[in-house]
């Protein structure tokens, strides 16, 4: 029988990322991955095998525009050429917003798409592109099962109070609440944590997803109880270019006194703030760590300071702390940032093991540390592939769920 393949698509505003997994018994093995980027300027397609060897690299002329339909056609053609006899059984999509309705992934049909359209206004920078990819594929391959996996779903277990803003209740009822994001990353970490630290997996843990986008999640027994991101993915920590949390009075001031309109404020908060805004140099942590400029140092200092503050807040939401886990680009790769965060969190009982941290962990705390600390790579694509496989299998059999 032909090997089964699951494809994962992450469609953004100007890029489409993909990966293909082969089903091997219980597990899924990465086979291919790649992306089409700069869709509207000078598109670039690059694809790799599981070892990271470039399989194809293609650039279009400057001025060429490739819409999402064109990008997906490139991806599907590539996958077809490299199928190696495997049979594509389903496609999983990263979809940023599942609103209140979707606490878990869902097989997409017209009714689901119509429901997901309602959340476009809650995530206008991502949701339309996520849904466009689903629609394009549905047209190209109407019989191919598609599954939507949400960044918000993992946080639907947050208690009611953790989801509330102190606004009039009618707004809460209308959906103005804290949703939380990066849920697929947290869910993946929750799924592997028992292998690393059984006590933390069954106890109180804060996961720090520190990438270009950055957030933190408090988990009790592997379930999300609070997170730093709220109504949108601009809340919480300062990020590469996003401000993180802000006194709402600043927005009133900007609009009232500085005459900024909504689009200008949006641009400021999403694209010109965070590490880039404070440093005036770069959004990329590696560039800032390598820089001698005083403002680069200030940006990093602020990043670490705010993580420390949020860690205290999330430990309070958990009523104590057993472990912290660093993940994503900065969390997985920067021993310096991990060490500095552990140092400001020393009062919580975290004692870093400098040698273990420098060599990348996974355990980066000492034997005697009251709270253990870990560096664990995340894998959102694998999480999506697991969900997709499981939901498709559900239609014929009664398989074990992909996590917990
Ligand atoms: P995204 O949110 O786009 O998926 P990533 O999780 O890939 O982002 O994280 C990107 C960030 O990780 C960038 O700021 C990058 O500089 C940082 N990063 C990657 N490797 C290192 C490293 N060795 N040291 C410090 N920062 C790193």
Key attributes of the depicted protein:
404 residues; alpha/beta; Nucleotidyltransferase, domain 5; 8-stranded mixed beta sheet; 5-stranded mixed beta sheet; 13 strands; binds adenosine-5'-diphosphate
Protein described:
The chain has 404 residues and is an alpha/beta fold. The protein folds into two domains: 4-150, Nucleotidyltransferase, domain 5 (2-Layer Sandwich), CATH 3.30.420; 198-375, 2-Layer Sandwich (Nucleotidyltransferase, domain 5), CATH 3.30.420. Helix content is 38%, strand content 21%. The chain has 15 helices and 13 strands. An eight-stranded mixed sheet has the order 5-4-3-2-1-6-8-7, sandwiched between helices. The chain has a five-stranded mixed sheet with strand order 11-10-9-12-13, sandwiched between helices. β9 (204-210) and β10 (214-220) form a beta hairpin. The longest helix is centred in the C-terminal third of the chain and has 25 residues, at 294-318. 44% of the residues are buried. The mean pLDDT is 94. The structure holds adenosine-5'-diphosphate (ADP). Residues 211-213, 240, 284-286, 289, 328-330, 333-334 line the site of adenosine-5'-diphosphate. Adenosine-5'-diphosphate binds next to α10 and α12.
């Amino acid at each position: 029988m032909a090997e089964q393949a699951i494809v994962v698509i992450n469609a953004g505003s100007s890029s489409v990322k993909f990966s293909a997994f082969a089903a091997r018994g219980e597990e899924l093995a990465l086979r291919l991955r790649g992306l089409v980027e700069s869709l509207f300027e000078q598109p670039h397609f690059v694809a790799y095998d599981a070892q990271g060897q470039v399989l194809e690299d293609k650039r279009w002329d400057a001025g060429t525009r490739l819409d999402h339909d064109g990008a997906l056609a490139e991806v599907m053609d590539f996958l077809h050429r490299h199928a190696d006899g495997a049979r594509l059984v389903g496609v999983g999509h990263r979809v940023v917003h599942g609103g209140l309705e979707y606490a878990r992934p869902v097989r997409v049909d017209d009714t689901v798409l119509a429901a997901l359209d309602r959340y476009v206004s809650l995530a206008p920078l991502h949701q339309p592109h996520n849904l466009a990819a689903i629609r394009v594929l549905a047209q190209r391959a109407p019989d191919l099962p598609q599954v939507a996996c949400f960044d918000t779903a993992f946080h639907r277990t947050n208690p009611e109070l953790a989801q509330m803003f102190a606004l009039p209740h009618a707004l809460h009822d209308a959906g103005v609440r804290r949703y939380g994001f990066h849920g697929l990353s947290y869910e993946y970490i929750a799924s592997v944590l028992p292998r690393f630290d059984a006590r933390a997996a069954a106890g109180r843990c804060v996961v720090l997803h520190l990438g270009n986008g950055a957030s933190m999640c408090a988990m009790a027994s592997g379930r999300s109880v609070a997170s730093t991101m709220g109504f949108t993915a601009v809340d919480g920590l300062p990020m590469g270019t996003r401000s993180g949390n802000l006194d709402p009075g600043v927005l009133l001031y900007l609009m009232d006194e500085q005459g900024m309109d909504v689009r200008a404020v949006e641009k400021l908060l999403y694209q010109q703030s965070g590490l880039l805004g404070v440093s005036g140099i770069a959004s990329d942590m590696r560039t800032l760590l390598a820089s001698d400029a005083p403002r680069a140092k200030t940006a990093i200092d602020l990043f670490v300071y705010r993580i420390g503050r949020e860690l205290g807040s999330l430990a309070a939401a958990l009523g104590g702390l057993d472990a912290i886990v660093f993940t994503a680009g900065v969390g997985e790769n920067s021993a310096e940032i991990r060490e500095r965060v552990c140092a400001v969190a020393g009062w919580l009982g975290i004692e870093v093991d400098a040698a273990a941290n420098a060599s990348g962990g996974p355990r980066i705390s000492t034997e005697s540390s009251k709270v253990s600390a870990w560096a664990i790579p995340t894998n959102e694509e694998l999480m999506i592939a697991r969900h997709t496989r499981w939901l498709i299998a559900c239609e014929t059999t009664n398989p074990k769920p992909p996590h917990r």
